[in-house]
Backbone:
């Protein structure tokens, strides 16, 4: 093409130009495309040197490919020029359509900037259109615009040098270079798109492989976990329904996996633990409760919840880890029982007795001075409330309307809580007044001391004494009602707590218990007898547990001294 005069162009030249453009679109990678673009300028457009400067993500331009001079290629390939310097170049010199030509008379100011460039030697031009070694010609490569023109985003710049005919390109040469740059921009954009797609496909494949590996890892961890695992639905009408269980959970509950899918955890939990289950949060919730086995028994388990999603915006599921803690719970219950029960008789010990007694008592005295609400208390059967210091009653009688709950207790007013700590939701314990049965029912405390026990210990040894205590504990337990407490205070002293008794009822109970104790007890082949002295005390709010026990103990000693010594034992 360089030897032809314009406008006449040989058909072979057009074929050659078509070939190099086709080669640009058949390159297999972005690097091959860039090198093909540079080579095409040299082979198809008649320039001895061509360089492709590619715009980087940060805006600067890097020398990505060079053709026509191996020394220049080694010198500047990979070097970077700033975007500001390139913008300066593309706004200097003469505009040849989309091309930019900077003659040597202007280009000398660019010799010291940061754009990578090469220098060629040669004589000064002898005529006007002859190419000077310091001339510069740039062909910007832009993405196609809306109307198909090359007015889009700058993706690179073609730098060309030394036309083979030694002359500046004419109209045909300029048009060919401009068209070539336009096609090169399309080819580079397509190559970038293919490269991005290939990277995306590789990344997607890796992510899918990682997902498959993760799913397989989760499946194996789920299926072969030594403790129970379950996946349940979350939200919707089927919230909580079990979708999948592992073998460990099926073995723990004695239920096949197909049967487990018919249940939710609320169907399997012990009725007393349903509240615990409902209070357990879905994300990170933990609970200890009992789950039902197929045989009707229950096993203690520790539940730990977490929420998992099928995909980024997919449905969420509840992953529940179920750990068998039956053995630990059994040990805990055994330890708690040992701490609160007598090792010999199995009865509640002194600490447990005081705990149960204290739970029924508060600091509110039984008898208080009548206040302004006494008439309402009498009408509704409520106990008296204390007048506040200084005669103030506003905490009870806002505008003449008392504020009580169903048990006659003041609601959470500050002055009330300061006077008596635990009014809310507490049923006050009261005691019969006087020595006659006035019909009042209260909490009777029967203090029992065995008569004649010491002589059995002394004569037959401690083993015999232990056997007597065990039998007395058994007889007392069988003689009281369900819900009454029989405790061993220590030594040969026992205490019975019986609620809802009047004075006559308590006396009858003491006689019944004494009659249960006095029959002979067989110990090592011999029959021994012990008697029992009972003191009846009454617990009411305003007393401490120790004060109640002391009162019953004193009454027991009064009753013991009131009987002749020979009558204290049955025989």
Residues:
């Amino acid at each position: 093409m360089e030897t032809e005069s314009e406008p006449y162009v040989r058909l072979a030249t057009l074929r050659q130009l078509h070939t190099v453009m086709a080669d640009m679109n058949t390159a297999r990678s972005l690097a091959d495309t860039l090198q093909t673009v540079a080579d095409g300028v040299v082979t198809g457009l008649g320039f001895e040197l061509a360089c492709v400067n590619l715009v980087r993500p940060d805006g600067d331009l890097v020398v990505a490919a060079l053709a026509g001079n191996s020394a220049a290629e080694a010198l500047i390939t990979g070097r970077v020029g700033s975007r500001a310097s390139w913008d300066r170049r593309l706004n200097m010199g003469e505009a040849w359509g989309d091309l930019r030509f900077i003659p040597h008379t202007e280009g000398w100011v660019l010799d010291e900037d940061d754009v990578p460039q090469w220098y060629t030697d040669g004589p000064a031009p002898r005529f006007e259109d002859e190419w000077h070694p310091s001339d510069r010609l740039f062909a910007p490569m832009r993405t196609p615009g809306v109307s198909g023109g090359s007015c889009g985003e700058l993706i690179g710049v073609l730098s060309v040098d030394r036309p083979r005919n030694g002359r500046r390109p004419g109209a045909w040469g300029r048009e060919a270079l401009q068209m070539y740059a336009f096609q090169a921009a399309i080819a580079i954009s397509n190559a970038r798109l293919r490269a991005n797609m290939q990277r995306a496909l590789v990344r997607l494949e890796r992510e899918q492989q990682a997902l498959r590996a993760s799913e397989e890892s989760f499946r194996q961890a789920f299926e072969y976990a030594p403790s129970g695992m379950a996946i349940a639905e979350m939200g919707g009408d089927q919230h909580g329904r079990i979708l999948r269980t592992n073998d460990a959970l099926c073995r723990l509950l004695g239920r096949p996996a197909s049967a487990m899918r018919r249940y939710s955890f609320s169907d399997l939990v012990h009725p007393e633990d349903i509240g615990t289950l409902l209070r357990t949060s879905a994300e990170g919730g933990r609970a200890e409760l009992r789950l039902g086995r197929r045989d009707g028994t229950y096993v203690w388990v520790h539940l730990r919840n977490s929420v998992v999603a099928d995909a980024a915006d997919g449905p969420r599921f509840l992953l529940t880890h179920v750990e068998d803690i039956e053995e630990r719970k059994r040990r805990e219950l055994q330890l708690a029982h040992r701490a609160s029960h007598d090792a010999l008789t199995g009865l509640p010990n002194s600490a447990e007795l005081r705990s149960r007694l204290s739970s029924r008592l508060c600091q509110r005295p039984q008898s208080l001075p009548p206040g302004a609400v006494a008439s309402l208390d009498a009408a509704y059967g409520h106990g008296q409330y204390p007048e506040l210091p200084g005669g103030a009653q506003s905490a009870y009688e806002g505008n003449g309307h008392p504020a009580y709950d169903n048990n006659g207790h003041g609601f959470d007013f500050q002055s009330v809580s300061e006077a008596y700590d635990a009014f809310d939701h507490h049923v006050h314990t009261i005691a019969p007044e006087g020595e006659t049965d006035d019909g009042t029912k209260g909490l009777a405390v029967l203090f029992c001391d065995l008569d004649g026990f010491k002589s059995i210990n002394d004569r037959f040894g401690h083993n015999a004494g232990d056997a007597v205590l065990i039998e007395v504990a058994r007889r007392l337990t069988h003689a009281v009602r369900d819900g009454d407490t029989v405790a061993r205070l220590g030594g040969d002293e026992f205490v019975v707590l019986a609620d809802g008794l009047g004075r006559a009822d308590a006396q009858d109970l003491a006689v019944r218990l004494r009659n249960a104790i006095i029959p002979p007890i067989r110990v090592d082949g011999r029959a021994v007898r012990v008697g029992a002295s009972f003191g009846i005390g009454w617990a009411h709010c305003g007393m401490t547990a120790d004060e109640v026990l002391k009162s019953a103990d004193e009454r027991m000693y009064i009753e013991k001294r009131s009987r002749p010594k020979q009558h204290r034992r049955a025989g």
